[in-house]
Amino acid sequence: MNQRTWNSDHGPLRGFYRDSDSGWIFGVCAGIADHFNLRVGTVRVIAIILLLLFTWLTATIYLAATLLIREKPLIFSGRETEYEFWRRL
User: Fold this and answer.
1) φ, ψ of residue 7 in degrees (nearest 5)
2) Does residue 47 fall inside a structural domain?
3) Does 59 reside within a domain?
4) What is the pLDDT of residue 25?
5) Residue 72 · residue 12 · CB < 8 Å
6) Residue 4, CA atoms < 13 Å, CB-side half-sphere
7) For the purposes of burial, counting CB atoms within 10 Å of the CB of 89, is it exposed (0-12), middle (13-18) or buried (19 or more)?
8) Domains identified in the chain, total number
9) Does residue 9 belong to any structural domain of this protein?
10) Helices 28-36 & 55-68, crossing angle to 10 degrees?
C-alpha cells in the first residue's frame, strides 16, 4: 500500500505510521517507505548506512520514532459488497 491508502470510515490515511506487518523490528523503515512511496529495502539500506556512520544519533532517532509514531491501523481492502456484508454484522 502507499500513502493514498483509503480507510472506508475515515478517508485517506495521512501522516506517518509504523507498519509492523511489513517491518523487521518495529516497522519504522516500512512506515517511512510506505509514506514516501519508496521500496522498503532502499529505506533499510539507508538506515543501516546511517547507523554505521552516526551510530548513537541514528539509534536514538529510531527509538524515538518507535515510541512517537503510532502503528498503522487495520484497513479493509476487499470488495465493497464484502465490506457492506461484514459491516452489517
Assistant:
1) -105, 120
2) yes
3) yes
4) 87
5) no
6) 1
7) exposed
8) 1
9) no
10) 80
Each residue's pLDDT expressed in tens, for the chain with a length of 89 residues: 444 444 455 555 667 788 777 778 888 888 888 888 889 999 999 999 999 999 999 999 999 999 998 888 776 666 677 767 777 76
CA dihedral 29, 31, 36, 38 (to 10 degrees): 50
| DSSP-assigned states of every residue in 15-81 | S--B-TTT-SSSSHHHHHHHHHT--HHHHHHHHHHHHHHSHHHHHHHHHHHHHHSPBPPP---S-HH
**Predicted pLDDT of residue 9:** 54
The three grid cell numbers given for residue 17, joined into one nine-digit string: 505510521
Residue 17 CB-density burial (10 A; 0-12 exposed, 13-18 middle, 19+ buried): buried
- Check if the beta carbon of residue 61 is closer than 8 Å to that of residue 8: no
